[in-house]
Each structure stands twice: as structure tokens, then as C-alpha cells.
Amino acid sequence: MNLKSKQMKNSLFLISFAIILMWILDNISYTWNILGKLLKIISPFIIGFAIAFIFNGPMNFIEKKVFGDKWKFKKVKRKYKRTISYLLTLILFITTIFTILFIVVPELVNTVQDLGNKIPAYVDRVELFAEENLKSNPEIGQWIKNVDWENMETKLIEFLKNSALDWAGATFTFASSVLSGIINILLAFVFSVYILLQKEELIRQTKKFVLAYFPKKAYHKIFYIAKLSNRAFSNFLSGQLFEAFIIGILFFITMLIFRFPYALMISLIIFITALIPIVGAFIGCIVGVFLIMVVDFKMSLWFLLLFIIIQQLEGNLIYPHIVGKASGLPSIWIFVAVTLGGSMMGILGIILFIPIFSVIYTLLKESINNRLRLKEIRDIK
């Protein structure tokens, strides 16, 4: 009877799952719309959890290493240990951000001014190039003369007038989005504070919930995967940050040695963009080439060569030994994770998919090894 009841439950579950899946596939656009709205509603909590995860590492370090057991038997101080550790972590992050801004903003202003001063010379070069080509190709000059510039100007003015209302509406929408974004970030920040200050209680409540509604075997599996995920994400973030820092320093030193312009500015841009796995440094390179090209075209080619050399060094030595070891993924699976993540979710997908693949890879590896051990298969050549 029990066996029949269990089989009936499993059959009902499979039938229900199949019906729900068929409905989702038949109404895929509606489903995506609902998921989008749901994601928008819960986004402050997702962002808050991400902030808490990033803050947790430094806060734990301060709490355990700075204060340690010195406060263990002092109840008044122990009560405030977590709060003080959190505040110190917050001060550390704010100081880091303002330090970067203090370096970047003046350099950015100088760069823009320098580019502004050099643009007229660039325009003169373009005009000279155009004149030389018009002399050698008179048919181009004749074609330009035949263009109805007055008609084009009239159409442009009409287009701008018609677009004025659209621009006003877009400006209002943009302002509303910015305000909504600020509110979401504030809510996320408050949520992250609650998570960090009460994380032990939240973990205890989660354990009670899982034990109450899931079998004990599933409970151990769920929390093993949770620990594995925590380690994978922590190792990946710390490894990626360290790798970006090394690349930024390498560019700064080599650019100073070879006297490239905008050394500090470009190095900081590459450091920030290199936080995006694999493709990030290329984005920084494009910006660097453009900035140097305005000053000296030949030097921009030398910078491109420098980037290729450092990128080869990073790809063959730094990345596999830092991020590769930290994530526990072979290089080919890192590439697959980045490709799939980027195509599905953009930059966020690139960042998330490497640790997710790391967890899946570890679980699959353990499962394969266990099955081979049960079959008494040891060495496969």
C-alpha cells in the first residue's frame, strides 16, 4: 500500500510538472514578462545579498583577526564586536572608492582638456587629407557639390523639432529610473546590514526550515552545495580582484618605463575593466588605444603591442595560476562559462557563470569518482 501510494505521488508530481512545463513553453513571452517583473521587485534583495557577500569576507577578517579572542569574555565589548567590524569594513570600502575617484577624476579632467587641445590639430589633419584626396579624385568633389545641403539641413531641423518631445519624455523616464535605482540601492544596503549583523540567526532559521520540510539526507546535500558555492564565489572574487590588480600594476610600470601618455588613467581603466573575466582587459585596451591615438598614432600601435605581450603573460601564467586555481576550473571550462554567461546575461553572466560552473564541475567530478570507485575502476589511460 505504501509503495503504491509513493508511486502515485511520484506519478502525480511528474504529470503536474509536465503540465506546468507545457504551459510555460506555450506562453513563453508571458512567462518572461512575469519573471522580469518579479526580478524587478526582488532586485533590491538580490543586490543586498550581493553587497553582504562582498562585505562578509573583510568583516570576518576584522572580527576574527583584529579583535579575536581578546573580547571573548568581555560581554559589553563582545556585543558590539560585529557592529564595529562592519563599520570598519564600510569605512574601508568608502575610503577605497574615494581614493580611486580622487586619483581618476583629476586625471580624467586633465585627459579631456588635453584631448580638447589636440582635437583642432586632428581636424586640420583630416581637412588636409580630404583636400589631397579631392585633388587626386575630382569626381568625389563633384559629387559633394551636387548634394542638396539646404534640403538636408531643413530635414535635420524638422527631425530635431519632432524629436524634442521624445527627448523630454526620455529625460523624464531617465530621471524616474535614476530615482528608482537610488531607492533600490538604499533598500539593498539596509537589507545587507540586516544580513551581516544577524547572519548566524538567519543560517540557524534556514537550517530549521530545511530540516522541517526536507529529508535529512537532502539537508546535508543542500548545505554541502551551499558551502561549496560560498567557497567558489569567494575564491573567484578574491582571485579576480588580485589578477586585475596585478595587470593594472604591470601596465602602470611598463607605461611609465616606456613613457606612454596617460599611464595612470589607462592603468586604472584596465584594472577596473579587468574585473570582468577574460574580455574585460580588451575593453580597457580599446579605450587606451583611442586615448593614445589622439596624441600619437604610432605610439598607440606600440601600446597595442605592449597589451598583446602582457595579455599573453596574463593568459598563460597569471590567470591559470590565480583565477584558475581559485575557481578549480580547467581553462577550457572557464572559456565555456564566459561564452555562455556573456551570451545569456551579458557582463553579469560572465561574472556569475565561472563560480556556478566551478560548483557544477566539482559536484560532477565527485559523482564520477564515486561511481568509478563503486565499479572498482581506478586508473583510466
UniProtKB/TrEMBL annotation:
Family: Belongs to the autoinducer-2 exporter (AI-2E) (TC 2.A.86) family.
Record GO cellular component, one term: plasma membrane
Name of the protein described by the UniProt record: AI-2E family transporter
Pfam families recorded: AI-2E_transport
Native source organism of the sequence: Wansuia hejianensis
Any one Gene Ontology BP term: transmembrane transport
Keywords of the record: Cell membrane, Membrane, Transmembrane, Transmembrane helix, Transport
Intracellular or extracellular location(s): Cell membrane
Keyword match Transmembrane helix: yes
Regions crossing the membrane: 12-35, 41-62, 83-105, 172-197, 241-262, 268-294, 301-319, 331-364
Topology in the lipid bilayer: Multi-pass membrane protein
